[in-house]
Amino acid sequence: MEVNYLSLFKRFFSSQDTIFDYSSLNRNPLSSFDFSTNLQQFLSGRALLFEELSEFHEILEEHIVHGYAGWFQGLSVKNGQYICGRCGNCDKHLFTEFPCSRCSHSCVYCRKCIMMGRVSSCSKLFTWTGPTFQFSRQLNPLAWEGTLSEAQNSASQQAVEAVEQNKELLVWAVCGAGKTEILFHAVEKALQNGKRVCLATPRTDVVLELVPRFRTVFPQTEIAALYGGSDERHLAGQLVISTTHQLFRFQEAFDVLIIDEVDAFPYSADYSLQAASQKSRKKISSRIFLTATPSSLLKSQVKRGKLNSVIIPARFHRKPIPVPQLVWSGSWEKSFRKKKIPPKMQHWISFRLQNSIPFLIFFPAIKTMEQALPLFQKLHNDIAAVHAEDPDRKEKVVSLREGKVPGLLTTTILERGVTIPRLEAAVIGAEELIFTESALVQIAGRVGRKADFPTGDVTFFHYGKTESMLSAVRHIKMMNKQAREKGLVDE
Amino acid sequence: MNNCLYCTYELESSITWYTILKRESREPQFCEECTSRFEIISGARCKVCSRSLYHLEEQFVIDGLCLDCHRWEQNPEWQNVLSKNLSLYTYNEFLQDLIARFKYRGDYILIEGFKKMLLKVSTELNFDIAVPIPLSSERLFERGFNQSEAGLVSMGLKPVHALSRSHSEKQSKKTRQERIHHEQIFLLVDGMDLKGKSVLIFDDIYTTGSTLRHASRILKEAGAEEVSSITLARG
Ligand SMILES: [Zn+2]
Ligand SMILES: [Zn+2]
Ligand SMILES: [Zn+2]
Ligand SMILES: [Zn+2]
Predict the structure, then answer these.
(1) Which domain holds residue A30?
(2) CA-nearest residue of chain A to B153?
(3) Cα distances (angstroms) measured from residue A443 to each of A174, A274, A329, A416, B148
(4) What is the ipTM of this complex?
(5) Taking ligand 4, which is a single-atom ion, which protein residues have CB atoms under 5 Å away?
(6) B193 and B171 in one domain?
(7) Contacts of A51 in chain B (CB under 8 A)
(8) What range(s) does the Phosphoribosyltransferase domain occupy (chain B) (predicted)?
(9) Do B140 and A93 touch (CB under 8 A)?
(10) Which of A284, A312, A340 is the last residue of a domain?
C-alpha cells in the first residue's frame, strides 16, 4: 500500500514529470468513461490538495486522464507577486520559503491558510471537471411550526426573493431580532429548487450552535458542518454550515451563500471574505449578508445603491434595545495596579451581586483581566474569568446561566452569541481600540434579550470618551427610533 | 517582517543604537506574549535527559538521573550511548500546538523563532558534526521537509546524512517496551566513517528517548566518540 502511495505522490510532484500536464480545466470529458460518483460528489465545487484526497488517490489519475478531474497550480505569480490559489492571499509578508523535498527546490508557501495544510509553489489544487453533481429538489424540506414577527417577515420575503433571482442582499438586524429564523424560508426555497446552500460564519462556536437548529428544521437535508477539526469534511452537503475559513476549500460550489456576522473580525474580514466568497459561489448565485453591525464598506455599498438591504430595527419581543451609559472612571489601569477597583465600578458590581443579577464585565486584554480577577473575587469568591483559549469557556457560561456563578470577567470573545435572562453588562476601559463601534453594539446587544426581561443596564466605564463609544450609542438610538417610527416596538 | 512568527501580533519596534547603526533587518521571532508561554525547564534536571526532577518522588531519582535514564544506563547495551540531551522547553499545550503547526501543517519558518535559544544551548555541548534523524521517504514526501534537519539548518549547521530508515512503520503504534527492544530502526549510510567524531543530533520532542538512543547507537557503532542531542521539547 505505502509503496503505491509513494509512487503516486512522486508522479504528481516530481518536477521532470510531464504526464500530468492537464492544467487547463475546461477540457471536455470523454463520454465513455465510467466515472466515480463518490469522487464526483466529493470533489464537485471544491479545490483540494493531493493530501486531502487520500481516499481517492488510486482513481484520481484515471479521472484526470479522461478529463473528469483537473488541477491548477497552488501558487501563481502575477506582476511579480505571489497569489495563493486557495485563500487568495497576496500579502508578501505572508509568504515564505522552505527547502522542499517534494520538488527538491526552495519552495514558496502561503502562511495565511497554513492551518489547512501547506499550499506551496509545487502544490496542485485538484477540482472536478466532469458533469456537476446534481442535488435533488426537495418538495417539503422545512419542518418548522414557528411564526415570524412583522419585521422578520418582510426581511424573510426579501431573502426568498434574493434566492429566486440570484441577487445580493444585506439583512441588517439588531441583536435579538431573531435573524436565524429569517433564513428558514430562503433556505427552503433554495432546497426546493435543488440548489446548494452555504451558511458561513467566522466563528466555530456559531457553527456549532446553528447546526442543530438547522438539522431540526430541515430534517431530510444532508447538512455538513465544517470547521477546523470537524470530521464531516467528506460529506458533500446540500446545506453546508461552515466557518468562513473553510470556504477556501470550495470553488464555484454554491448557488446561495449566506454570510452571518460579517463583521466579527473587523480588521481582516472584508478582504478575506471577499476572496473566499467570490471563490466558493457559482458565477450565477445569490449572496445574503446577515449582521447587526455592518462594516462601513457594506454600508457604503448600500448607500451607492450597489447592494439591496433590509433593516430590522426591533427585537423579536418588541421592546427597545437598552442604551448604554457612559461613565468616567479615571485611570482604571492605575487603580488595578494599586489593587483597587475604581469606586464607580465597584458600586456597579456590588449592586448586581446584592440583587443576584447575572453580569458580564468586558476587559480589553487578557493580562489586565487576570491581574484584576483576584480583586473581583474579593467581592465574591465565585466570580470567574474567560478568554478565547480557555478550555472551560462553555462550562463557565453555562454556570452563569444556571446562576452557579454570579458574574464573569471576559475578553471580547463573549461579545456575541451569549443569551442569558436578566443579564447586564459593563465594559472596563471602553476607550481601548479593541472596543470598536461594532464590538460595543454587540456587547449592549447581550442585555434584555428575553421577552420576560426585556430591559437591563449596560455601562461603558471609560477614561475618556471615544468616537467608537459615541457611535455605538448613536447606532442603538437610531435603531430604536426607526423601530418606533415603524411601529415595531410596544412601550 | 515585524510581526510575531506565531500569532502575527505586531512586534513593538525597539529601536536601539545597534539596530540603527547596523541597519539590520530583524530576524523572525516570537512576540513577548508567545515567548512568555514557553516553559523553560527550571531547577534540577536529569543529568542525561533534561527532565525536570522537581515534581518527581524521591524513589524516581537516582544519582541525579531520572528513573528512565537510570534504567538505560544500567543496561550494558545502552550505557553511555547518549551522553546528554538538552531540551529547550517543557512540552506544554502551547508548544504542542506550535510544534503541530510546524511539523504537520508544514509551517517551516516557525523553527527560525527558536534559533537564538538553539544556538545558545548548543554551546553547552561538544560536537564536530550534526546528523539529522531520518524520516521514511513516505513521511518525507508527506511533510515536505524533515523537522530534524530543519532544526540543524536553523543553527547554521551543515547536516551530514549519516543515517537512513530501515523501515517505515509509525512509531506511535507500538508500546514503549516494543519500541525499546525493537530491532534497529536506523541504518548507517554506506561508507560513513565517524571515527573519533563528536556528533550532535536534533529532534523536535524527547518523549521516551528511544528514537534518539537508537540513532546514537548506530552512530557510536560507526566509531563516534560521543553523541549528544538537542530537542525543542521535553515530553
Ligand atoms: Zn493561502
Ligand atoms: Zn516544493
Ligand atoms: Zn506571538
Ligand atoms: Zn533522564
Answers:
(1) 5-128
(2) A99
(3) 12, 26, 19, 7, 47
(4) 0.89
(5) B 46, 48-49, 51, 66, 69
(6) yes
(7) 142
(8) 170-234
(9) no
(10) A312
